Amino acid sequence: MRHVIYQRKSAREVARDPSTNTFLTVEHTDKETDNSSRNDERAETNNFKVLRTKSHGSQWINSEFLLERVTQRQVSYFCARVETERLLQEPAPGISATPHEDNLRYFDVIIAGPSQSPFEGGVFNLELFLPEDYPMAPPKVRFLTKIYHPNIDKLGRICLDILKDKWSPALQIRTVLLSIQALLSAPNPDDPLANDVAQHWKENEQAAIATARDWTRSYAQG
């Protein structure tokens, strides 16, 4: 069992990494930890910081709390736990994200088609996965439900800047899902992933919207 220390109101928490069946024990302390001498890179993430130490490859989380020498996989699981709590406390309208019981880094996502969009009335299933280097790397998200959209291809992959080069550790899963929901409201054929759909959208937008509505009725009815 790994023993780590962090600053927070709660006295103790224990998190399990199901893939390795290892445990992370977290205890409250009022002691300040000096990181000034460490050779590290700092990245703001949500309400905490992730620090990557160049010399040892260890990981720290620090803000209201500090985790010392935690493996990146455990950091990812800890972040998944924090994100899940936030999603439950601050649910986004029309969006649900449920983590798998045996792996907190996998989420089953449901997004309702936004009103006044070609996808209104649809219920779209997605899968979301937090890679081991999350939150330094973006989550992996794809649609499982078929959708006619210029920014979503046949494999369900999504063209969204915050899932690529515009990702920041300060972003949250909730932000990502809201951005995907917004993409359903405002398809962008000028930055396509499905080139044939984008071409259809540009040449005859009304016909493309009609096709999107047909697909929504055919494939996205829960």
UniProtKB/TrEMBL annotation:
Catalytic class of the enzyme: transferase
GO molecular function: ATP binding; ubiquitin conjugating enzyme activity
Keywords per UniProt: ATP-binding, Nucleotide-binding, Transferase, Ubl conjugation pathway
Record Gene3D superfamilies: Ubiquitin Conjugating Enzyme
Domain UBC core: 75-221
Known EC number: 2.3.2.23
SMART domains assigned: UBCc
The organism's place on the tree of life at top rank: Eukaryota
Catalytic site: C159 (glycyl thioester intermediate)
Family, per entry: Belongs to the ubiquitin-conjugating enzyme family.
Name the UniProt record assigns to this protein: E2 ubiquitin-conjugating enzyme
